[in-house]
Request: fold
Amino acid sequence: MTVIAPAGFEAAGVAAGIKRSGALDLAVVVNRGPSQQAAVVFTSNRAQANPILWSKEVAKDGVVSAIVLNSGGANCFTGPEGFQVTHRTAEAAAAALGVAAGDVLVCSTGLIGEQLDGEVLEEGVLSAVNRLGADAAAGEDAARAIMTTDTKPKTVVVDGGAAGARWRIGGMAKGAGMLAPGLATMLVVLTTDAALEASVLDRALRQATRVSFDRLDSDGCMSTNDQVTLLASGASGVVADEAEFTAALSAACLDLAAQLQADAEGASHDITIEVLGAVTEDDAVEVGRSVARNNLFKAAIFGNDPNWGRVLAAIGTTAAPFDPYLVDVSMNGVRVCHAGRPDRPRDEVDLAPRATHVRIELHAGEASATILTNDLTHDYVHENSAYAS
Amino acid sequence: MTVIAPAGFEAAGVAAGIKRSGALDLAVVVNRGPSQQAAVVFTSNRAQANPILWSKEVAKDGVVSAIVLNSGGANCFTGPEGFQVTHRTAEAAAAALGVAAGDVLVCSTGLIGEQLDGEVLEEGVLSAVNRLGADAAAGEDAARAIMTTDTKPKTVVVDGGAAGARWRIGGMAKGAGMLAPGLATMLVVLTTDAALEASVLDRALRQATRVSFDRLDSDGCMSTNDQVTLLASGASGVVADEAEFTAALSAACLDLAAQLQADAEGASHDITIEVLGAVTEDDAVEVGRSVARNNLFKAAIFGNDPNWGRVLAAIGTTAAPFDPYLVDVSMNGVRVCHAGRPDRPRDEVDLAPRATHVRIELHAGEASATILTNDLTHDYVHENSAYAS
Reply:
């Protein structure tokens, strides 16, 4: 079950011919209402793709009727012609659905700097609108159509509410490289049949992404096309409690973030970096990120080498307040460094499992944060050296 | 010719038995005077090795008689015992040389978090002192003894002054991984027979490193053991002009930086990133660094893929003032992006040569900077995943 799991939504995924492979490459998700409230967060990269420029305008009034997503091309740094392609895509969807173009979001993902064919996109949109459905296959096709180097679709469903007043959140995500903060690079569509205003959706979405996608840092590279969209149909008729809804939305986002991490390009380890004892949560995030972005540490994990010196060398570059010579580091449960000195022998650490846990105790305060990352592997280098060819 | 090229210096390199391989692993450089003025710059990493903690104290008064350098172990995060090993090393050299221990610098490089054997180091120091010489072989041995994963020694000689008032700068460097700013990770010893005070040496060294080692960013990882040392014997009797000396020292540092870049672990491309049209030099450095640290860009260059979209995605994450949609990007002389849009076809770019030139024109101001980096390769991952084993 995917974005069509909550009541009020239809979806489709088609092969529009954007990808030369003939794979599914265009998805449409429609909110049939009764209400069309929405919230969207965008990449913080200043280099922004044309669909981001368009969608930012659409999202301003908190009303969104539909979203069109394509893989096979990012439509970024493609100039005014590229913007026209995005505009034409929204217009085509709007006409076919009988809604306003100003209520249609567009997302694109793929190679930067190549023009998309507006006619191909327009025909794809019409084909997708004709195939819209609320069955499982429709949701699955949509999730597959947004994949690039992803090896599998990522979907989630979370239920909320009480007996007689149930609501639901559904979601789909794509992303396998360029996973980095603010946001982890990806496209995500979340749907809910809860009856919530755009302002509530916006608060809930910002909180949920802050503790999920923003804590996923696969390779430190920030995308030009990131967009996380939350659409609410109100079809359940239930006004969800904001705190409960935010918690459920955070759970859905964390689930999708873990799926993105598990499918990161070429990775052989999923690394959870837990930072404890920081003065502030921001400090904990900075310390965790400095490790997540350290190529020497990431290569060591690939080689099943518990090289904790690289953890300390990485965190020593941060501005977070702590004494490097008081720090403890544990790897997969073995404390290899205590108070900035060797503790248990390295060879007690078993890094063979894919799931890797690094625990860093700063002993400077009470705040903590967890960052998700991956190792640096031969396959990562291979996939990213051959991407455009 | 190396650190013994200027008059007043002797050096030696021996196999002390720190490296299991039996390779040269300990070097001593002695300043025989008549003066012992010196300047030193250190890593800006807060996680600092014991020899850094020691050497910072030694360097404070601007007087240095000798420097001991070992490979085979970083002596970092090794606690008070590790500091005692450094202290004992300096004491041993001081006693053998008849100088004060407080005038003996110590540098170490190798794996973090492993204790060095103080007795092995002391015996190595005595052996090296017994072999001190000012012949070419002595300087070459010293340059080899500080190598870790370096495939070749790095040395330089630059001459200065006018007829009848010549002076000379010699140098050696090690470093192949963890090459990153503030400083590029490495050990460097520079010698000169110019008669200059420590305060002049300090100004000259800070300026020279700022435009050379600080602009080299091989893998974004900052070391715990970086140290660049400049020793002046005054043996030429010539008080060099400060501006001329600074220029010559900068040339020597740039030469060594280029040798470090060319020998970076596993690299197949030496990438020069030239940033033009920035508002300030700091902005230009930030923009260049953001590209140098972008794994997706670096992997693309490894694959001979002129993926300029990754350049723009990288620079879009900076705070430097410029409009991403006015930027021009050229690769090896071919302008592939003009005003944020595709320009010449990608396939006109030949990335087969090892020397790679990326030119980024921001069109925001008059400042510029050049950053040196390397590509991200299978061999980089391999060497750094197997380092500790």
